[in-house]
């Protein structure tokens, strides 16, 4: 039986990819499966937390005891996250692979092949972690993720500072067998100067490791 180390904690988690529509049939997205984010929601619920999972399009099943809200685009995800902060939130875990860009124009009618602008004009999406960090209702702990191919720790450390995350979980996406879209993962948890390496394991094991680590440094109110 899992220890209820997050009992009474309210946790908000983002998961999956986002979908940035061009028209009703087409859009931009990425390879995220949602599996790691769903596993995290399961591990947090097992640890006794009250979990809201805000997810982009995925085929994953909602774990028992987890509340789930489905969204499509990065902007929808941001709106849903900020709305969720209306209820005091202790921990925000940003696992979603949010699309960095969206098509600048959405056409409500399906475009013909030749009507699609080439090159396709793109706009930069808002950063959800930064927005949650700047919000007056900021959760006590913000955990971000970074999928990197090189200079992992340095890049992720800078990213955490820039976005205002307290912890950043870095994973290497050089191998097709690990991370995005794969069944297994391996990562390093960076918290200021501290680094904890979690060797290759299943996504649920990694989620449980992460929850154990989080609960060890999160001071739970009596
Ligand atoms: O900058 P990069 O996309 O590598 O950062 C990844 C981290 O930032 C993840 O925690 C992801 O959920 C979050 N993110 C976000 N909003 C964005 C882009 C990334 O919250 N628009």
Structural description of this entry:
This protein is of the alpha/beta class and 222 residues long. The chain has one domain (10-107, 115-216): CoaB-like (Rossmann fold). The chain has five helices and twelve strands. The protein has helices at 35-46, 74-84, 128-134, 152-163, 203-217, and strands at 10-15, 20-21, 27-28, 50-55, 66-70, 91-94, 101-103, 122-124, 141-148, 167-172, 184-191, 194-202. Strand 2 (20-21) and strand 3 (27-28) form a beta hairpin. It is globular, with a radius of gyration of 17 Å. The model has no long low-confidence stretch (mean pLDDT 93). The structure holds cytidine-5'-monophosphate. Residues 14, 74, 94-96, 98, 125, 127-129, 144-146, 159, 163 line the site of cytidine-5'-monophosphate.
Q: Could you give the order of the helices and strands?
A: EEEHEEHEEEHEHEEEH
Bound molecules: cytidine-5'-monophosphate
Number of helices: 5
CATH homologous superfamily descriptor: CoaB-like
- Class of secondary structure makeup: alpha/beta
Which percent range describes the beta-strand content?
25-35%
Q: What overall geometry do the principal axes of the alpha carbons give?
A: globular
- The end-to-end span amounts to 22 Å
| Stretches with pLDDT under 50, minimum 5 residues | none
Compute the number of structural domains.
Answer: 1
The major beta sheet can be summarized as: 8 strands, mixed
What is the percent of helical residues? 25-40%
Q: Architecture, CATH level 2? A: 3-Layer(aba) Sandwich
């Amino acid at each position: 039986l899992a220890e209820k180390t997050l009992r009474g904690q309210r946790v908000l988690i983002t998961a999956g990819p986002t979908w940035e529509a061009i028209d009703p049939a087409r859009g931009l997205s990425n390879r995220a499966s949602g599996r790691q984010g769903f596993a995290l929601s399961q591990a947090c619920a097992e640890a006794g937390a009250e979990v809201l999972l805000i997810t982009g399009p995925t085929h994953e099943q909602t774990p028992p005891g987890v509340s789930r809200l489905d969204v499509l685009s990065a902007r929808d995800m941001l709106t849903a996250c900020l709305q969720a902060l209306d209820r005091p939130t202790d921990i925000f875990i940003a696992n979603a692979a949010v699309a960095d860009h969206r098509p600048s124009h959405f056409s409500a009618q399906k475009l013909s092949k030749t009507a699609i602008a080439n090159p396709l004009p793109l706009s930069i999406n808002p950063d959800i972690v930064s927005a949650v960090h700047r919000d007056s209702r900021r959760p006590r702990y913000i955990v971000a993720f970074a999928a990197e191919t090189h200079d992992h720790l340095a890049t992720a450390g800078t990213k955490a500072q820039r976005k205002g995350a307290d912890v950043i979980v870095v994973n290497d996406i050089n191998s097709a067998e690990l991370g995005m879209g794969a069944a297994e993962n391996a990562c390093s948890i960076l918290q200021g100067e501290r680094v904890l390496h979690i060797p290759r394991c299943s996504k649920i094991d990694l989620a449980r490791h992460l929850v154990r680590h989080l609960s060890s440094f999160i001071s739970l109110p009596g």
